[in-house]
Amino acid sequence: LKVNRTEEKTSYLRACALVEKQLYCACVSYFLCLRDMHISWLGGTAIKIQTKPFDTDITIIINPYKPVQGDFPRSLLSDIALFSARSHNTITLMGNPFLLETPGECEIKGVLVHGIEGKTPEEILFRIDSEHMSVAHLGSGKTPLGNQQIDALQGVDILILPVGGVDTYDAETATKIANMLEPRVIIPVAYRCDNDPKADPIETFLKEIGIPGEKTEKKVILKKKDLPQEETKIFVVSKE
Q1: What pLDDT, in 10s, does the model give residues 27-66?
Q2: Measuring CA to CA, which of 19, 51, 54, 100 is 20 to 30 A from 110?
Q3: What's the total number of domains in the chain?
Q4: Is 202:236 a contact under the CB 8 Å cutoff?
Q5: Strand partners, 107
Q6: Which residues pair with 239 in a beta bridge?
Q7: What is the residue-averaged pLDDT of the chain?
Q8: How would you write 19-71 as a 3-class SS string?
Q9: What CATH number does the domain containing 226 carry?
Q10: 168-179 confidence digits (pLDDT tens)
């Protein structure tokens, strides 16, 4: 009888520890869902993502290539810098950032980055996971996606999608890619602005995809808990 009671006590304590662990994980997940991710468009396919894993502010800069014309930052402070193509024509990056311009997967300061080789070896696509949200960046948007790229990016929360049709996907191709990847949020880039005056205007893509875009200021602020569940939402971000 004494042995049985000891076993019952041990089982009870184990069950309590399991419940405590589950409650802790649920609380952590809930508070992570309340955190913000800030995404800004710098022009072309250049993007700035601000996130805060482990209560530390992290700035990610993607494709900070100097444009031929138009306004663009001369320098940027960043913790992580991602390049979809090898090029020396970049702006000055301050802060001694971690650089990635090759395929591979790594975790930097609490941010998981997956560099995915495109259909041509010169093109790198990126998947970024932070704050319980996933972001896909389709590089320069010059080459179609194959099965390998679709498998790696399908179902991401946020899709950074080139749509301008000048050295990037046109509206029709961008719409097909959006339908394949089925993201919750689309942020179009590389449409007409002072850097790309010959690119298609954003209205061309919105008409093709048939979803009205929600215009924002110079950044979109997203929380996991606020992401759409059933439909895809498009944020048209003003160039920073």
Answers
A1: 444 445 447 899 999 999 999 999 998 888 999 999 999 8
A2: 19
A3: 2
A4: yes
A5: 112
A6: 41
A7: 87
A8: HHHHHHHHHHHHHHHCCEEEEEEEECCEEEEEECHHHCCEEEEECCECCCCCC
A9: 3.60.15.10
A10: 999 999 999 999
For residues 11 and 70, state if they share a domain: no
Q: Which residue has the higher pLDDT, 208 or 24?
A: 208
| 8 & 111 share domain | no
**Closest of 132, 180, 134 to residue 160, by C-alpha:** 134
**Domain region containing 9:** 1-33
Better-predicted residue by pLDDT, 9 or 143: 143
Does 48 lie in the same domain as 100?
A: yes
Q: Identify whether residues 3 and 80 lie together within a single domain.
A: no
22 pLDDT exceeds 60? Answer: no
Q: Give the E-state strand segments of the chain in sequence order.
A: 36-43, 46-51, 58-62, 75-77, 80-82, 92-94, 98-100, 104-108, 111-117, 124-130, 133-137, 158-162, 185-189, 213-216, 220-223, 233-237
Give backbone dihedrals phi and psi of 74, rounded to 5 degrees, phi first: -80, -25
Same domain, residue pair 104 and 188:
yes
Residues 9 and 109 in one domain: no
